[in-house]
Amino acid sequence: MKYDYLIVGSGLYGATFAHFAGQEGKRCLVIDKRPQLGGNLYCKDVEGIPVHWYGAHIFHTSNKEVWDFVNSIVPFNRYTNSPVANYKGTLYNLPFNMNTFYQMWGVTTPEAAKAKIEQQRAAAQAAMREAGVTEPRNLEEQALLLVGQDIYEKLIKGYTQKQWGRPCTELPAFIIRRLPVRFVYDNNYFNDAFQGIPIGGYNKLIEGLLKGADTRTGVDFFKDRAYWEGVADTIVFTGKIDEFYGYRFGKLNYRTVRFEHEVLDTPNFQGNAVINYTDAGTPYTRVIEHKHFELFGPAVYDRPKTVVSREYSTEWKDGMEPYYPVNDEANTQLYLQYKALADQEESVIFGGRLAEYRYYDMAPIVEQVMKRFQDGE
Fold first, then answer.
1. Residue 177: what pLDDT?
2. What is the pLDDT of residue 1?
3. Which of 159, 169, 209, 237 is the most buried (most CB within 10 A)?
4. Which of 46, 98, 58, 54 is CA-nearest to residue 272?
5. Is 311 labeled as catalytic in the residue annotation?
6. Is 248 one of the annotated active-site residues of the chain?
């Protein structure tokens, strides 16, 4: 059977592409090397709770067309992302807002909070001038100029060093060119007009997007590449772009995440979906309690158990799942070499986080695929 598209990878890009191609009457075959569909969006049912098996995902967008589209596949709930930071046992609200500043300094007005931050920013600027530094040379100096010493030390430094596996003084300043600071009592992490999670978990979204497409799991494209390249007119590739080209220029670097999932015999472990551990001494970066993505208020106690996941950020090695591109100068230049090859392809479409070597939120992925079909590409 000849297909119009072979889609390598059943994550959000591949599944969304299959949906819109199917709407145009195209035949799609979607293959994935994992035993299940959905890529990193896959949710595993544990104690009746959809567990985000490869890390927490919160859909958010200000694009009403995108929001209406995903809700046409499966209704989304009203989850609002309001993470909490735990620094050595003291809790702070995120993102940085008036609740955070009250917890940090006891200030109760925006004017007092602004004055405190400006005082610390000025001290950082003076220290840099004294050292003969005119522009921030690394993430630490950039953060100090943006929010000052207290917020940096308690809520940024340890978490960032765990996330990237190196001191903030060795990380480029561009990683945090801006840090959201809100002088209102608002713990909503996102500024977007819409946010939520598919009711019943992301498997519902993926299943809806892939309806009508043929799918096969447990299939490694590279183990029988010649065969798979012959089953369709066009390949949609969502895997690692360097692997597609046989690593001819070398391997791109990634950060990855290791998860420890645990079922607890309590209905409510931490009272929030996401708690970041921002001190360097705690080995994990955050703890996710999955039922809070789906159940709100008293409904949390309808299920007697809960599931938590601890996340450990680490350097990627062969055999690990790649998560975050390392967008430093060396990796960016290496990626551009591969992109130059990809741009010459006439029957291969590269899309998504790994194929484009960039971090994506979910909504821009959907928007990108929608636009491709709307533009008739």
1. 78
2. 67
3. 209
4. 58
5. yes
6. no
